[in-house]
């Protein structure tokens, strides 16, 4: 048995232009399981009915034995007593049997009645539905039906509004009736175009009841959203026999928890009632064959493509179970070789059982029949099983609902069609339009993309290649004329780029290429070629050129700023400076600038004898790089020199310097260690602002001074700093430095300081050698500025 199995070549939204994702194997198993469950339920109901009849017959037998009457009279007595007692005949029969026999039969009877009661609908619900049905039958239009549903059926459930939507074949929704909403709100929602996501469309798409605790929580708009955004919604598709003709939407004023199953069954029953009302203006059901089926068959027989006409096959309860093949046109060829007449009248899943499997063909047909929204796919992979051997091919699929039937057609692609389609897509993606001109007849042929490039309608007259200059920019006229001479007079292939003036005023950048067409006698009879829109490429090149120019200008500015910053640093702090002898101290300084200009930073040092004969010693590091860091360094260095002449101690100097950094600069932050050496007492008073503490080398050992508190400059508007003292012994050396001396990528600060102490403890010939040794053997690798001061007492 053959089985065409179309599979989508690409994923898409089902229902319009693209096939849905193939149904997973679990979906196939689910469909088969549902069929088995349906058959099991039917068997169970038949057994229950048989058990019920047996129970009634037992009760009749009891009455015949006790009353001595005949079977007919016993049956009449059973019905009369049940009616007078207000119970069902089955319940009364069970009571009679229960009284007559206290055995396992009575237990089975009670169990059977319990299951029957569980499946029975609520009496009040049945009454409401019947009352609403009566109102709907008496109503003249859908508006009256909506009002009847609200008044009789859903208001007792707490709902306050009802909307009945009519579903169009294109997926649009029209408000056919409403109750509980204002007239203004109904006017706003009288029509919902196809593709607009709403709560009603969600039920239409899922083909099932959708419950939202709150409308705002669902994230979907709907009628009454402005009036009651926090109310609950229950939306159910309105359909009969598998065909959805509308949607019933019921609104609650308050949040709605998940309603029990019996409430949802009531809503579905009301939705089916609405479907019968809406069906008055819809297509007639096709269960028994739609009106005009003969005309549809005649139409299908005239098609050039294979086609099947399918009619819905309904179960006794009205549920759609399958589709029956009503007709296969003359172009149809069964993959398994069966004649067309053998397929007529068979069920789709019987003829092609794999249609419910991976390909999802049955789901597509079912969706189109339910919603009326046609399905189109330009290219799908079809697999046919012939003697259990899979055969694959490509085809375009089309499924439509017509007059209550489903029309399934497909077109198999040959190699020429496939290549032509590839060429069309390539021209569309590349924005290429082709042309051909016959020189003898003057006939010109353009394809559709070329009309679009020129901004002309498809029915407009094509423009001859010889008139191209009239449509080009004046500045491009020379290049176009040279191109035309090469092609039309020299009969050689040529190309050129120009600006095309379109009738709508848009200017496009176009590249045209053309070649002569020769006949068998090598005589030029025409010209053919192509136009390509290169506007995007042109503007990209313009943008890139502008970007390159801007980058070059920025790089030049940056280099100039870095050069100025380095000159400023060298003017204030030369890279090398001889030792200074002052007040019993020998002071050596080293400054190593960054190797790269863009990394020029704000490291600085100072060593100067103040009027008080004290020696100011300091090292600092301004955050950042470039000219801003260098100018900030100059400000802080000069400010500290001026403040030091007041005679204040290091802690007070840093307090004032913090005010300068915070208020008198452009948000400069810096770290500093500052010391004042008194030659009379050989005492160094020092303070730090976020900087690394100095290192003392004494007696062949090196250690860091205490980590006294002090926040970096410029971080806070007002702060104070701590101060400490150190008495320098003879031949002691104190080292002040910036982090560029010790920082190393991947190493911790503790490791870097430990390496610095090991290097500082090494003996050296004099102070200059000691400083050079530190710069040489410290393994910093961040290429940052480095300042180093060595103070040695003599």
What does this structure look like?
By secondary structure, the protein is an alpha+beta fold. The protein folds into five domains: 150 residues, PAS domain (Beta-Lactamase, 2-Layer Sandwich); 84 residues, no CATH class; 156 residues, Beta-Lactamase (2-Layer Sandwich), CATH 3.30.450.40; 117 residues, PAS domain (Beta-Lactamase, 2-Layer Sandwich); 229 residues, PPM-type phosphatase domain (Phosphatase 2c, domain 1, 4-Layer Sandwich), CATH 3.60.40.10. It contains 22 helices and 28 strands. The strands form five sheets. Strands 1-10-11-12-8-9 form a six-stranded antiparallel beta sheet, with helices on both faces. Strands 4-3-2-7-6-5 form a six-stranded antiparallel beta sheet, sandwiched between helices. Strands 18-19-28-27-24-25 form a six-stranded antiparallel beta sheet, with helices on one face. Helix 3 packs antiparallel against helix 4 and helix 5 runs parallel beside helix 10. The longest helix has 43 residues. It starts with a strand and ends with a strand. The N terminus is likely disordered. Keywords: Hydrolase. This is Transcription antitermination regulator. One of its GO terms (molecular function) is RNA binding. It comes from Pilimelia terevasa.
């Amino acid at each position: 048995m053959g089985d065409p199995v179309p599979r989508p070549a690409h994923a898409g939204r089902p229902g319009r232009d693209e096939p849905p994702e193939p149904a997973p194997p679990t979906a196939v198993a689910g469909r088969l399981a549902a069929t088995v469950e349906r058959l099991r339920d039917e068997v169970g109901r038949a057994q229950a009915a048989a058990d019920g009849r047996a129970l009634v017959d037992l009760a009749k037998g009891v009455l015949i034995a006790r009353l001595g009457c005949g079977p007919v009279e016993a049956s009449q007595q059973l019905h009369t007593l049940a009616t007078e007692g207000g119970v069902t005949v089955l319940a009364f029969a069970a009571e009679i049997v229960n009284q007559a026999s206290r055995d396992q039969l009575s237990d089975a009877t009670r169990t059977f009645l319990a299951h029957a009661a569980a499946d029975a609908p609520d009496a009040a619900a049945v009454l409401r539905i019947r009352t609403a049905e009566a109102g709907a039958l008496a109503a003249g239009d859908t508006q009256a039906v909506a009002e009847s549903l609200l008044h009789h059926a859903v208001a007792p459930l707490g709902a306050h509004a009802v909307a009945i939507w009519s579903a169009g074949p294109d997926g649009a929704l029209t408000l056919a009736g409403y109750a509980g909403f204002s007239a203004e709100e109904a006017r706003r929602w009288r029509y919902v175009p196809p593709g607009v996501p709403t709560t009603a469309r969600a039920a239409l798409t899922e083909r099932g009841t959708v419950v939202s605790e709150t409308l705002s929580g669902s994230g979907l708009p709907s009628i009454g959203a402005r009036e009651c955004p926090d109310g609950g919604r229950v939306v159910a598709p309105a359909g009969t026999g598998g065909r959805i003709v509308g949607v019933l939407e019921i609104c609650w004023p308050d949040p709605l928890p998940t309603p029990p199953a019996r409430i949802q069954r009531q809503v579905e029953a009301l939705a089916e009632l609405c479907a019968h009302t809406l069906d008055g203006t819809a297509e007639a059901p096709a269960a028994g064959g739609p009106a005009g089926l003969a005309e549809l068959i005649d139409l299908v027989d005239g098609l050039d493509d294979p086609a099947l006409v399918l009619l819905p096959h309904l179960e006794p309860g009205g549920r759609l179970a399958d589709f029956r093949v009503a007709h296969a046109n003359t172009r149809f060829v069964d993959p398994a070789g069966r004649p067309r007449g053998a397929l007529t009248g068979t069920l789709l899943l019987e003829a092609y059982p794999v249609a419910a499997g991976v390909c999802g063909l049955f789901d597509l047909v079912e969706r189109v029949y339910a919603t009326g929204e046609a399905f189109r796919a330009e290219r799908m992979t079809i697999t046919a099983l012939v003697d259990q051997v899979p055969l694959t091919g490509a085809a375009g699929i089309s499924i439509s609902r017509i007059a209550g039937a489903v029309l399934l057609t497909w077109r198999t692609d040959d190699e020429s069609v496939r290549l032509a389609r590839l060429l069309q897509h390539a021209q569309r993606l590349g924005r290429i339009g082709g042309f051909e001109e016959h020189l003898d007849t003057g006939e010109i042929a353009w394809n559709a993309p070329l009309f679009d490039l020129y901004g002309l309608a498809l029915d407009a007259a094509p423009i001859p290649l010889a008139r191209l200059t009239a449509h080009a920019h004046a500045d491009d006229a020379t290049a176009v004329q040279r191109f035309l001479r090469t092609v039309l007079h020299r009969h050689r292939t040529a190309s050129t780029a120009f600006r095309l003036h379109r009738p709508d005023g848009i200017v496009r950048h176009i590249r045209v290429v053309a070649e002569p067409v020769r006949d068998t006698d090598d005589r030029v009879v025409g010209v053919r070629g192509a136009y390509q829109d290169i506007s995007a490429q042109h503007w990209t090149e313009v943008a890139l050129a502008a970007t390159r120019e801007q980058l070059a200008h920025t790089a030049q500015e940056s280099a100039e700023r870095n050069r100025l910053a380095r000159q400023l640093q060298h003017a204030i702090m030369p890279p090398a400076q001889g030792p200074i002898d002052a007040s019993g101290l020998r002071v050596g300084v080293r400054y190593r600038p960054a190797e790269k200009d863009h990394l020029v930073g704000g490291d600085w040092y100072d060593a100067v004898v103040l009027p008080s004969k004290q020696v100011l010693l300091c090292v600092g590091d301004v955050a950042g790089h470039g000219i801003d860091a260098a100018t900030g360094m100059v400000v802080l260095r000069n400010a500290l020199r001026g403040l030091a002449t007041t005679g204040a101690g290091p802690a007070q100097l840093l307090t004032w310097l913090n005010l300068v950094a915070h208020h008198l600069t452009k948000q400069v932050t810096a770290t500093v260690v500052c010391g004042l050496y008194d030659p009379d007492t050989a005492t160094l008073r020092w303070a730090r602002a976020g900087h690394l503490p100095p290192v003392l080398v004494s007696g062949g050992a090196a250690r860091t001074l205490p980590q006294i508190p002090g926040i970096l400059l410029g971080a806070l508007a007002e702060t104070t700093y701590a101060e400490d003292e150190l008495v320098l012994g003879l031949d002691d050396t104190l080292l002040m430095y910036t982090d560029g001396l010790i920082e190393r990528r991947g190493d911790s600060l503790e490791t870097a300081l430990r390496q610095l102490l090991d290097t500082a403890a090494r003996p050296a010939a004099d102070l200059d050698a000691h400083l050079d040794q530190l710069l040489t053997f410290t393994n910093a690798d961040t290429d940052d500025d480095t300042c180093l001061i060595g103070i040695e007492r003599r």
